[in-house]
Fold these 2 entries.
Entry 1:
Amino acid sequence: MELFNKGPEFSQTERLEKISQSAMEALELCASMGDYQTSVTKFKNRKDIFQRAVQGLGQMLPIAFYAFYAMDDAGFDIRLELVDDSQKTDYAGRAVDDLIDRGVVALALREKKTLTAMSPDRRYKVLIHSLATTSKTYGVFFCFLKDGPVEKAIVDKITTIIMKSTGYALENFELYQLVHQKNDELVEKNFQVSKSEALYRNTFENTGNPTIVVDIRGAIVHVNGQFAEFSGFERRDFADRRNICDFLGSGSNMDFAKILYIAEKDNQDAPTEYVFINSRNEHKIVFLKISLLGLEDQYIVSFADVTPLKEAERQLQFQAFHDPLTCLPNRVLFQDRLKQAIKKKKRYPAYNYALIFIDLDRFKSVNDTMGHNVGDELLIQVGKCIAQSVREIDTVARFGGDEFLVLLEDIQDKECCDIVARRILGQFREPLQIGDQEIIMTLSMGILISTEQDLGHTDAIRLADMSMYEAKRQGRNCMVYTHQIQNREIEQRLLLENNLQKAIQKGEFFLQYQPLMNLSSNQIYGVEALVRWRHPELGIIPPNTFIPIAEESGLIIALGQKIFEIAFADFAAWSGKFPMAKDLNLSLNLSVKQMLQNNLAADIKKMAGAAGIGLDNITLEITESLFIDDMDRALKTIHDLKDLGVSISIDDFGTGYSSLRYLNKFPIDLVKIDKILIDNITGNQTNYNIVASMLELCAKLDLKAMAEGIEDLAQLEKLQGMNCPFGQGYYFAAPQDRNVIEEMLAKICEGFNYR
Ligand code: C2E
Ligand code: CA
Ligand code: CA
């Protein structure tokens, strides 16, 4: 241990001076140690800390180099972490191994004080000290000293202080690093949160729909700009937690739990509608889309405003069941009520109804001499007069043209009906006042009283119609009951039904074709095949007379097959003769009974194959009544047909159970807007609006649209103004025999532009 006292170059005084100077510096150093332990931010790594310690020790000791051995995590072993002079690494390793072997290192770790030893080759004195705090041992510090005088007592103390401080500095540094890392993580997390918050806010603001966030009780937590506008409130008005139910109609019994429950059960095709009432008390119809926000039991609710769509649908519904001119129920609604009455009669034989078929006498001459406006006004007034003569529960309908139908429900006997019929006739004893003109109008009536006889609604109407004709024959302005003519009519009907079967075998049916036009190019786009019956005695019978009979008797299947065969053969012949006919479209009508036959698609394929034509240019016209009974079956049939390559069009759209919903639910290609809507398009703003909104909807749904029954240029121009793409009607051509169509195609081939 006299090691430290050696120093022949120094005199005793010099030595003392040196010692006291070192001690002073060391004391200063000790004083600055507190600062050293805490100035962690200055250190980039542990080496900086050691450097600083060595700098302190170097004031008193001639340090050649140092090594630090770090304690492993388990606290069992030390491993070289760094040697400040890289050339000495191996040397230091060997020296420390020796010190370990000699037990010096273990002692230093245990005693936590400064030990000194000689390196194995005795070149260096080595100062050994553990670096530790009360809670953790970091490792062992080895200072390799050059030769020189050292005041051991002071050095020991100060080294211990410095080493302890270094231990704490390490601990602080480690903590700092940890805090720093945590802080970085926090900053990153905050950044991510604010990023996703911005994203969320942006999405929320721009959902395209009024959107809100609500809590589990429906209290509104956030609203987007669109919702504020939609609700008629300012954003700040939502600070006091309004509830979503405050806006949804049908009021008091509505709570958010119920809305959630309903939303869960809703299916996409038929979402539940709610009435949304805004601050201006405007009622809107909305669909709700509710999804979990994923935060604190909150929900995001967006509102789709379907008011315009619903309004169009409502108008369409009204239009579908009402006559646009008189606003009375139309043919469809009437038939429906009549069907109900017939069913009731079957179930309750004591129940009786009466059906009155009314036709105005000589209406045509009024129309022709006084003009359409007077004619229309007259029809409106007649409708009112008839309606005034019956009870609320009865139905008065305009059947078309100047025909009206009355259904009297639950009447006691024929006498009751007689009274009502006379009352109606009585209304017209006085002339009607139309503008400044007085017009005398009379009516002819055919009346059917319900009987035990099993009648279909078409038969019932036909019988009443026949009786009305009998009334006309008897001199007009009177009524005739069906039983007065019935036998003759029934005979005729039976005759037709009998004949129908033979007629199919004998080939008495033939087709006419009506051109379908492209309204933007004024070019022929296709033809619709329309069947006729050339009866040997009765002459040509129109389809409206025999198709219902064919349907009821099931003969429609065989008849339909004949029609397809004829049409396909004609189409094949045209395609062979005229190159342009290959692009021509052929439309065929299918009634519901035909649609529901089992092998329809396969049959059509077979027939097309036999005729040698493809099916890509074939369109099948079906009516919406197909959808009423069995949606699933209808959908399957349509898909089977579409798989053949044919197109599907909806015939007579706007007259039946018109629902916009079918249009996007079924794979439909074309919508044929019924003649009844086109008829009034030039005179009646409602009709114009309805047709316009139908056309708009079709365009939106990527459906083709065709106007039926265009009879004059004014109608055509209106339709062209509305961008109606296709049209059909007498204005272009009535249904024509096949040879006329052939001539037409020949002309087109020669460059003649059809109309
Ligand atoms: P639809 O399918 O609506 O056929 C159009 C009807 O309107 C045709 O009467 C046509 O002659 C008539 N029409 C076309 N343009 C005008 C016009 O500008 N003014 C007027 N007033 N009428 C026009 P049609 O040929 O008497 O056919 C009546 C209905 O019979 C057809 O109505 C269709 O439902 C049915 N039908 C015709 N052929 C067949 C067929 O082959 N199979 C089936 N299942 N039904 C058919
Ligand atoms: Ca048709
Ligand atoms: Ca039609």
Entry 2:
Amino acid sequence: MAGQKIQAPKGVSEYVPPRSEAFEFVRESLIEPARKAGYQLIELPVFEDTELFTRGVGESTDVVSKEMYTFQDRGDRSITLRPEGTAGVMRAVIEHGLDRGQLPAKLWYSGQFFRAERPQAGRYRQFYQVGIEAIGLDDAAIDAEVIAIADAGFKAIGLSKYRLEITSLGDADSRAAHRVDLVKFIAGMKLDEATTARAALNPLRLFDDKRPEIKDAMAKAPLLVDYLSESSRAHFEQVKKYLDVLGISYVLNPRMVRGLDYYTGTTFEFVHELLGAQSGIGGGGRYDGLMAELGGQSLSGIGFGLGVDRALLAAEAEGVINENSFVSDLFIIPLGDAAKEMAMKIASQLRNAGKSIEIAFGDRALKGAMKGADKSGARYVIVLGESEISSATVELKEMKTGATSSVKIDSLISAI
Ligand code: HAM
């Protein structure tokens, strides 16, 4: 109806000023360590053929069975808004032959992902991730480097109240041996039909069941880490050794279940201590069978997805985001037309020199313009009038302290 307000769809995260700048700072902080380690940007569509996710992510997962935004497009194709990034990256790597160049192919991405979850604090239906994928080598040092890159991102934001949990899901042999005993164990439990069906698809899912009676029963279930093959065990030992070398502390969590089915070998999660129920700020691991599953050659891979929304919440909870770092350096108040021209020239020079400058437009009276300067949070303010122009000197006022000093217009750059 005309005139009625329209609201954002339920459960989406969106960022408006001033918080949007903090969000961008968090995202950039998470990306930078990947760039420094030689990862290159891959920019992919937010929708894909539905089959990519049913096959890639797995039908036993909540993500695929309950949370996908799937629709028929106008050509009657089944399309799904991407719930995660790894499957799409593998699809693109195969399609563009990136696996035929130098290995590992090292890629980073950042963008929106979509899961129709029940919205709550830190859990959204559209959310943001920064992710990386290293495809084509199964050197344990890469596992440690991938983990270190995530860790460096969180540290760059200033986070410290989080822990890294790691485990190994082993190779196919390890999982097959474990599965035999786990299936036997599960057969002795009383389960409803839906849970039995899930367990048949992937018995590990039961470790992730939140119902107390299932949790209690699963406390005695056989653990995958006790079934690791010799080579899986050796690989995992190496990963831990490299993490020790890097000084990255971790806790072993042999009951970790990731929400996606493609994981093998090293898997990990970063858990923040101040976030309550949605405390996972990032996670990832190896997915050594995924590429072959999606029709590519049999290459291993490892990567992570970091939750930008949650990392921002974590930064706010820790009080490490300094809102002041997202404000302008200088606010110029011109009085009169000649001053306005001068202000625009000064602003453009200082901006070219890397400073952020705002100008009070609209020919407002000094008092109102001063209020605007105050509201903007800018570090310094100057007023440009006839006398300032003729003397080429301004009074530079530091907003926080109120302290003023006389500065030549030519020297503003060094003064601010
Ligand atoms: P994931 O654990 O499903 O992994 O998601 C990674 C991170 O995204 C989570 O740790 C969390 O911070 C954030 N996240 C997930 N769902 C939501 C939501 N509904 N609202 C807010 N934040 C959310 C993956 O997606 C894998 N693709 C990661 C990966 C890459 N593994 C290997 N390579």
